């Protein structure tokens, strides 16, 4: 049995056929899915999803949507205030998806938004689910400085082994997804092969990050390909790998 540690079932891409998507996930052997938030306008949709015992949710403000997030507005209409209220309800298992993306620019704004969410994670004693592109070294430094609870997920990790090691030493798990299934992902293959058994989880990032050979929308059932490729790289059976990555996810999110 597998767990998809990071997907976005609350996005509009799944509004029409969500029940069919969940049914295919069950048929593929997926026992649980973690839905990561991106914008405040989808938090209520996430709470509706969480009525299904097979779905847990994280609330967060993604760095891609700086123009969507309402940050410098009157009290009561600030998305960070909204996020804090949602976290206070106790339904979310983590803060995220939040983080940094060098490609998007406006790094001062990204840092400000991330720092605020890291403080919320510390206040509510929750793990963080982090998006990090081109900023692994800077992120590692900030996580050390803030003395956060030693648990969280670096979603879709794509860095070097040295960067992976630093994040693991801080207590963070690495998300392994569809990018790893592509033949040209040689550095990522080496990292996945070297990770400790308790150092990573499987994820799809649905509807994005399709595995090799998949076109169009990604969905949780496609995690089977990721599991098989990771097992091949690590010279273990897919059943063995699915078991210990599910255990890692359960421990991280206190499922």
Task: List descriptors.
9 helices, TIM Barrel, 17% strand, TatD family hydrolase, TatD-like, eight-stranded parallel beta sheet, 255 residues, alpha/beta, globular
Order of helices and strands: EHEHEHEHEHEHEHEHH
Estimate percent helicity.
40-55%
| Rg measurement, Å | 17 Å
> Could you tell me the number of beta strands?
8
Q: Strands across the major sheet, in which order?
A: 1-2-3-4-5-6-7-8
From the helix content, strand content and strand pairing, which structural class follows?
A: alpha/beta
Straight-line distance between termini: 15 Å
Largest sheet: 8 strands, parallel
- CATH topology: the name is TIM Barrel
**CATH architecture annotation:** Alpha-Beta Barrel
Oligomer: single chain
Count structural domains: 1
Note poorly predicted spans.
none
Q: How much beta, percentage-wise?
A: 15-25%
DSSP summary: helix tally? 9
CATH superfamily: Metal-dependent hydrolases
What coarse outline follows from CA principal-axis ratios?
Answer: globular
Keywords: Hydrolase, Metal-binding
Family: Belongs to the metallo-dependent hydrolases superfamily. TatD-type hydrolase family.
Organism: Larsenimonas rhizosphaerae
Pfam family, one: TatD_DNase
């Amino acid at each position: 049995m597998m767990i998809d540690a990071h997907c976005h079932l609350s996005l509009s891409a799944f509004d029409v056929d969500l029940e069919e998507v969940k049914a295919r996930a069950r048929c593929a052997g997926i026992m649980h899915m973690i839905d990561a938030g991106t914008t405040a306008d989808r938090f209520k949709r996430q709470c509706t999803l969480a009525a299904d015992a097979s779905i847990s949710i994280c609330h967060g403000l993604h760095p891609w949507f700086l123009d969507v997030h309402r940050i410098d507005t009157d009290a009561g209409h600030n998305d960070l205030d909204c996020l804090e209220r949602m976290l206070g309800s106790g339904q979310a298992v983590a803060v995220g998806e939040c983080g940094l993306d060098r490609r998007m620019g406006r790094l001062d704004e990204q840092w400000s938004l991330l720092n605020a969410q890291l403080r919320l994670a510390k206040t509510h004693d929750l793990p963080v689910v982090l998006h990090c592109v081109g900023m692994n070294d800077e992120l590692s430094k900030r996580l050390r400085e803030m003395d956060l609870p030693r648990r969280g997920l670096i979603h879709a990790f794509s860095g070097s082994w040295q960067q992976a090691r630093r994040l693991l030493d801080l207590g963070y798990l690495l998300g392994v997804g569809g990018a790893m299934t592509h033949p040209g992902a040689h550095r990522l293959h080496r990292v996945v092969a070297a990770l400790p058994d308790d150092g990573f989880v499987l994820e799809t990032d649905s509807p994005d990050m399709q595995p090799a050979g998949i076109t169009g929308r990604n969905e949780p059932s496609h995690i089977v390909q990721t599991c098989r490729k990771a097992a091949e790289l690590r010279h273990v059976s897919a059943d063995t790998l699915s078991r210990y990555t599910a255990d890692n996810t359960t421990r991280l999110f206190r499922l």
